[in-house]
Design a protein that fits this description.
4 helices, mainly alpha, 80 residues, 0% strand
């Protein structure tokens, strides 16, 4: 029971923790969006057309894997 109470943020620190969390969320989303934009500019074909119109499942898996990898890198950088 005592270990579960260690995860609770005290009320006077709640504002600071929320603001810090929101700042890191915004920074992470900006970098994630930039990585996706760079990916769309680098590829010589339309990612949207290939995945939606041509039903290219393999490309969807590759793009999804790359985005998950980028998200893991961003999360590790934010955590320090």
């Amino acid at each position: 029971m005592l270990n579960m109470l260690a995860l609770v943020v005290k009320f006077d620190q709640l504002t600071e923790v929320l603001v810090t969390t929101l700042i890191f969320v915004v920074i992470g989303l900006v970098f994630f969006g930039l990585a996706f934009l760079i990916l769309t500019f680098v590829t010589p074909f339309s990612i949207r057309k290939e995945i939606e119109d041509d039903q290219n499942t393999a490309l969807g898996i590759v793009i999804g894997s790359m985005l998950i990898g980028i998200a893991i890198i961003i999360a590790a950088a934010i955590n320090g």
